[in-house]
Amino acid sequence: xxxxxRWFTAxxxxxxxxxxxxxxxxxxxxxxVVFTPWVRMxxxxxxxxxxxxxxGRLLPLPTPGYVLVTVTFWLLLALSLAAATGRAPRLLGWLxxxxxxxxxxxxxxxxxxxxxxxxxxxxxxVLPTVGAARHGDPTRSERAGWALRATQLAVVATYFLSTWAxxxxxxxxxxxxxxxxxAVLRRGTVFAEWSTHVPHLLVVVQFLIVAFELSTPLVFVxxxxxxxxxxxxxxxxxxxxxxxxxxxxxxxxVAMTSFLPLEKVRPVVRLRRLLRRRADRPLPAD
Amino acid sequence: MHAETVTPTDSAARADPPVLRLGRTxxxxxxxxxxxxxxxxxxxTLVGQDDDFPFGPFRMYATADRLDxxxxxxxxxxxxxSGRRFALTDDATxxxxxxxxxQLPRFEKHPELLSGLATAYARRxxxxxxxxxxxxxxxxxxxxxxxxxxxxxxRTVVSWSAR
Lengths: 286, 163
Hints:
Number of domains of chain A: 1
Strand order of the largest sheet of chain A: 1-2
Keywords (chain B): Membrane, Transmembrane, Transmembrane helix
Structural class of chain A: mainly alpha
Largest sheet of chain B: 4 strands, antiparallel
Keywords (chain A): Membrane, Transmembrane, Transmembrane helix
Protein name (chain A): Vitamin K-dependent gamma-carboxylase
Oligomer: heterodimer
Order of helices and strands of chain A: HEHHHHHHEHHHHHHH
Order of helices and strands of chain B: EHEHEEHHHHEE
Number of domains of chain B: 2
C-alpha cells in the first residue's frame, strides 16, 4: 500500500508546477475571451430558460442574470491573470476554481453540456493545494507531485471512460457504424474528405480510436523514451482529429501538459537573457 | 496538510535536489480525495447523465450513426414587428442552437417559453423592432450512403406569437 501511496504523490520539481499553474490560469483568461466567448452571451438570456444542473440545484447558486454573469466574467478575468503570476497561490487559486466552476454552470445550464474540460477543472481544484512554488525551483515536492498526478489521472480517465460512454450510448454500432463518416461529412476538411470514399477505412479508424483510448493508461507504466513517445502520441491524436474534422479539445490539451517537463520552458528567463545580451553588445563603430 | 519536511537523506546520497515530503495526514487526505473523485466519475460514467456535470459520462461523439438515417437540423425562424421574417442566429439571442435542441421537449410542452428568446433578442438588439413570432423548424435531411440526397422534409415543431 505504501508504494501505491507514494505513486500518487511522487515528487516533482516545484518549477514544473509553477509553470503548469501559470499556463492553466492564462488559459482560463484566454478561455473567457477567446475560446468560449458565448458563455458571456447567457447574460441576456432570461432566467426562464435556465435549467440548473444537479450541481446548480445542490449548491445555492443564483439564477444567472446580467449582473451575475458580467461580474463573474470580469472578476474571473482579473483573478486568473493575477493567479498566473503565482502570487497568493492558495487564496487566488481557490477563488479562480470557485468562479470558473460557477462560470461552467452558467455555460452548461441552458440545455447543452460540453465534455471537454473535466481534467481542466481537476487541475484548477488541485493547484491551490500546492502552495508556494517559484519558477525554475528544482526542489522536488510531493504536494506538487500529487497535483500533477491528479490532473494526469483525469486526463487519462477522459480517454478511457469516453470509450465506455461510446459503448453505453452508441453500442457496438459505434465501432462498426457510420460515426466517423457522419463526422467527416458534417465537418470534414480537405485532409479527410477522401476517406469517405475508401471502403471500410473509417470503420478501421473507429477501432483504432477505441484501441488508442483504452491503451492511454499505459502512459503510467511506460518508462523513458516510450513514455515520451506515448505522450507525443496523445498530442498527435488531437492533431489528427483537428486536421480531419476541426474538433479541438483545448482545455484538455492544456491539462495534458501535466505530463510535460514544463520547468524547462522558461520564456521570461530566455527573454531577459536575450535583452541583456543585446544591451551588453558594444555598439558597432561607424 | 502543512507538515512538509525536507529529508536530507534524499539529497545527501547524490547531488539531487531536496525533496519536500508530505505529512501522513496530508498524504492520506490527498489519496482519499483522489479515490472519491475517481468513484464519482466512474459512477457518472456507468449510470450518470449530463445533469451530473462535472462527473457525467464523457459522451462526446458517443452516439452511433447510420448512413441511411436522416440528419436533423434545428433552426429558429423569427418575425419582427415590421413583418420581416429571418433566421435567428446564436449571436442574436445568446442562446445556442444546441441549447434549442436540448430544451426542445420543454418548448413543445410550454411554447410560451420561447418568449424568453424574444426578450434576449430585444436586450441584445435594443434598436431593432421586437420579435412577434418565433418558430422552431426541424429539417430532416435525407441521406443515402451517408451523403445528402438533396431532399429534405421540414416541419415547424413549436411556435410562439406575441399577443
